[in-house]
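Priority: medium. Attachment 1 of 2:
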C-alpha cells in the first residue's frame, strides 16, 4: 500500500511562451544539445530505468542487486543469498557465487568489477558462455543502483583474496583494493549501498515487500536458500526461505487455506530447444483462479505465450478426458476455458536463453515458440496424470462441470436481473446519489457504510463530481460464493450497477467504468474494517482491473476532533491526538471528541476532513504482489480456520493495512 495526498488543483492558467518560431530557431544551437555521459543519464531520468522514485522504485534497487545473485544461482554457482536491511535503511546483499571478475577488461582498460558497476549495458548476460539463462536483459541493473546510491561498496571474494571498490553517486572513489585473504573455496560478492535521498524522497524499506519477492524467488529456485534480516529495530527480524519442492511448494502455500482436490499438486517439467518449462497445479473448492507465470524468474503479470499455451493445453486435455471417460454430462457439448480454470491454482515457469518481452511494463512474454512447447507439455503430462489418477480426475471433471452449471446459472441470473433493470446502467439504483458530470476521469464514487454516514456524505459532497452509494450492513463474502449466488445479493448488485462494468469472465468491461475513483469509506472500528475487507475481496476477485488501473482508494477519516477555544484540529491517529493535546498546553481547557462512526460527523466536517480533494488524504489500493494478496485474502476470508487463527496470532501485535501489500 502507498498513501498519497490529493494535490491542490492549480487554479492559475498556464502562461504561453513569449517566443515565436524564428526566435526559437535562433536559440536552438549546438550548445543546447546536452550529452549525458556514463551514469549521468540514470541520475537525470531515474524513472526510465527503475520505474519511479517512490516506494516501488526504491525496492527495485534491491531486486536489481539480488537478480545478479539469482543469475549465479541459475547458472549453478550460488546456493545462498543473504539480504540485510541495516540501520539507516542501508542494504547489504551477500551471495556465495563466483564473485564478479576483478581482472582488467581488455577493451575498457579497467577492472571488470568497475566496468560492471559504472557502465550501462555491461555484464555477463550478453556472453552466453557466462550465463545460459538470465533474468537481466540489458545489463543496466547494478550500475543503475550504483548511480542512484549515495554510496556503494562492492566486496568480491575469489582466488583466495578479498577485493573492494567504493563509489559515491556512481563515481569511483580510489580504485580496486586488495583488503584481505580467504579460503579459495569461499567465493562470492557482497554489495552494500545506501539509496540517495536526492533521488528518493522517502528512504524506508518495507520488510514485508522485500520478503514477498525473496520468498517468490526461493520458490522458483528450488536449490537456493535466501535469508532476509532486518537489523533496524532493537528486536531483529529474520526469515529464511528454502523450498526443496520448488513451485510445488508454491502451489501448496497458495492453497494452504483451501480444501484441495489433489492431495499432491500435479507437477511436470520438460525441455525443448533450450527452453525449460515447469508447471505445478492443483484444484481447490474455491471459485477463483490463481494463475501465476514467470519467465527467467521475472513475474510476467501480463501473461504471454507461456500462459496462452497452458490455457489452450488445459482446456483441450480436460475436455478430451471428460468425453473419453464418460464423465461429461449428456446435455453438455464441451467445457469452456473459464470452466476448467475455476478453482485452479497454477504456477507456470519457463527459462529461456533469449526472452522477448512485450507490453507497457515489459512483463508479457512474446516468444511465440513457447506457446506450442507449453501446450504440448500440458497435453502429454496432464493427460497421463488424469489417466493414472482416476479418483482425482473425477474430482477435477466434476469441479469443472459444476463451474459450467454455475456459470449458466449466473447467466440466467444476469438476464433475469437485467429484465428487472437491476444490472442495467440506464436504471441506476435508487439509493445512489449520482454526480452530474459524465466524465469518468473526474467522477468519484464513495461506497459508504450505513445510511447515517451516507446521509452526511450526500449533504457534504460536491454534487458535480462526487457520487454516494450507502451500503446496508455487511456484503456477501464472495470468497465463499459462486457468481450466481453473488448476483443474488442486493448490496453487491447495486455496486455492480453503479460501476457500469457488469461482472463475469468475458462480460466485465473496464472501459464502461463510470468513476475513476472508487473510494471505500467505513467507520474506524472492527465492523468498519470487516466491511472494508469484504469490499476489497469483492474487487480483488471480480473487479481486479479496477485496482490494477489505480482507480480504487480507501478514505482516511479522522479519529478525533481536538478543540481549544475557537481552534479545532483533527487527528488521524492516537499519537497525533496526544501530540496535539501536548502542544495545546495539556488537558486543561481542551475538548477531545472521539468519532466512533462517520455518522457522528456533520456534513461540513466530513467534507472538510475526508472528501475535499484539496485537503483529504486517501490510501490508493495497489496489487504489488498478486500471489501474496491472493494468499492473504484466502487466509482471511476462506473456509479453513487454522491458517486464519495462525495469521492472527502471528500478526495481531503489529498488523497494519499497509502490511497486506495489496
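Attachment 2 of 2:
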Amino acid at each position: 500500500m502507498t498513501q498519497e495526498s490529493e494535490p491542490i488543483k492549480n487554479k492559475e492558467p498556464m502562461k504561453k511562451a513569449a517566443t515565436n518560431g524564428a526566435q526559437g530557431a535562433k536559440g536552438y544551437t549546438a550548445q543546447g544539445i546536452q550529452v549525458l555521459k556514463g551514469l549521468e543519464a540514470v541520475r537525470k531520468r531515474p524513472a526510465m530505468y527503475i520505474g519511479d522514485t517512490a516506494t516501488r522504485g526504491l525496492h527495485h534497487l534491491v531486486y536489481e542487486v539480488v537478480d545478479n545473485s539469482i543469475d549465479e544461482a541459475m547458472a549453478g554457482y550460488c546456493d545462498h543469498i543473504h539480504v540485510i536491511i541495516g540501520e539507516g535503511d542501508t542494504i547489504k546483499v551477500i551471495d556465495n557465487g563466483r564473485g564478479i571478475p576483478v581482472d582488467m577488461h581488455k577493451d575498457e582498460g579497467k577492472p571488470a568489477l568497475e566496468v560492471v558497476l559504472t557502465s550501462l549495458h555491461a555484464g555477463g548476460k550478453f556472453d552466453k558462455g557466462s550465463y545460459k539463462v538470465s533474468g537481466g536483459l540489458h545489463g543496466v541493473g547494478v550500475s543503475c543502483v550504483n548511480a542512484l546510491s549515495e554510496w556503494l561498496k562492492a566486496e568480491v571474494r575469489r582466488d583466495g583474496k578479498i577485493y573492494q571498490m567504493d563509489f559515491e553517486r556512481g563515481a569511483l572513489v580510489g580504485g580496486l583494493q586488495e583488503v584481505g585473504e580467504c579460503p579459495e573455496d569461499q567465493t562470492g560478492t557482497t554489495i552494500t549501498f545506501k539509496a540517495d535521498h536526492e533521488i528518493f524522497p522517502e528512504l524506508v524499506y518495507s520488510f514485508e515487500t522485500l520478503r514477498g519477492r525473496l520468498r517468490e524467488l526461493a520458490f522458483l529456485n528450488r536449490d537456493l536458500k535466501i535469508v532476509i534480516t532486518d537489523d533496524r529495530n532493537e528486536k531483529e527480524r529474520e526469515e529464511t526461505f528454502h523450498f526443496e519442492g520448488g513451485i510445488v511448494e508454491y502451489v501448496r502455500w497458495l492453497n494452504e487455506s483451501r480444501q484441495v482436490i489433489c492431495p499432491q499438486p500435479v507437477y511436470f517439467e520438460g525441455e525443448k530447444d533450450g527452453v525449460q518449462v515447469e508447471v505445478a497445479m492443483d484444484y481447490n473448492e474455491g471459485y477463483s483462479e490463481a494463475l501465476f507465470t514467470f519467465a527467467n524468474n521475472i513475474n510476467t503479470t501480463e501473461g504471454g505465450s507461456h500462459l496462452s499455451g497452458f490455457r489452450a493445453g488445459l482446456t483441450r486435455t480436460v475436455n478430451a478426458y471428460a468425453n473419453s471417460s464418460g464423465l461429461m454430462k449428456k446435455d453438455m457439448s464441451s467445457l469452456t476455458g473459464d470452466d476448467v480454470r475455476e478453482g485452479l491454482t497454477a504456477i507456470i515457469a519457463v527459462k529461456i536463453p533469449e526472452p522477448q518481452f512485450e507490453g507497457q511494463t515489459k512483463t508479457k512474454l512474446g516468444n511465440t515458440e513457447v506457446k506450442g512447447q507449453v501446450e504440448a507439455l500440458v497435453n502429454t503430462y496432464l493427460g497421463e496424470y488424469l489417466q493414472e489418477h482416476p479418483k482425482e480426475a473425477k474430482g477435477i471433471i466434476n469441479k469443472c462441470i459444476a463451474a459450467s452449471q454455475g456459470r449458466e446459472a449466473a447467466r440466467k441470473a444476469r438476464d433475469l436481473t437485467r429484465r428487472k433493470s437491476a444490472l442495467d446502467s440506464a436504471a441506476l439504483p435508487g439509493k445512489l446519489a449520482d454526480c452530474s458530470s459524465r466524465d469518468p476521469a473526474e467522477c468519484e464514487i464513495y461506497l459508504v457504510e450505513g445510511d447515517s454516514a451516507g446521509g452526511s456524505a450526500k449533504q457534504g459532497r460536491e454534487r458535480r463530481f462526487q457520487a454516494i452509494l450507502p451500503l446496508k450492513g455487511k456484503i456477501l463474502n464472495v470468497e465463499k460464493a459462486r457468481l450466481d449466488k453473488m448476483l443474488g445479493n442486493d448490496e453487491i448488485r447495486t455496486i455492480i450497477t453503479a460501476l457500469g462494468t457488469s461482472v463475469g469472465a468475458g462480460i466485465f468491461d473496464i472501459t464502461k467504468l463510470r468513476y475513476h475513483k472508487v473510494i471505500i469509506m467505513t467507520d474506524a472500528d472492527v465492523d468498519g474494517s470487516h466491511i472494508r475487507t469484504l469490499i476489497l475481496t469483492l474487487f480483488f476477485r471480480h473487479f481486479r482491473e479496477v485496482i490494477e488501473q489505480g482507480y480504487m482508494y480507501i478514505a482516511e477519516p479522522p479519529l478525533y476532533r481536538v478543540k481549544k477555544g475557537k481552534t479545532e484540529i483533527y487527528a488521524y491517529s492516537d499519537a497525533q491526538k496526544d501530540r496535539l493535546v501536548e502542544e495545546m498546553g495539556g488537558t486543561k481547557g481542551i475538548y477531545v471528541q472521539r468519532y466512533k462512526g462517520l455518522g457522528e460527523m456533520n456534513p461540513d466536517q466530513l467534507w472538510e476532513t475526508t472528501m475535499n480533494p484539496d485537503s483529504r488524504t486517501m490510501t490508493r489500493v495497489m496489487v504489488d504482489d498478486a500471489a501474496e494478496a491472493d494468499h492473504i485474502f484466502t487466509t482471511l476470508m476462506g473456509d479453513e480456520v487454522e491458517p486464519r487463527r495462525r495469521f492472527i496470532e502471528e500478526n495481531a501485535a503489529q498488523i497494519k493495512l499497509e502490511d497486506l501489500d495489496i
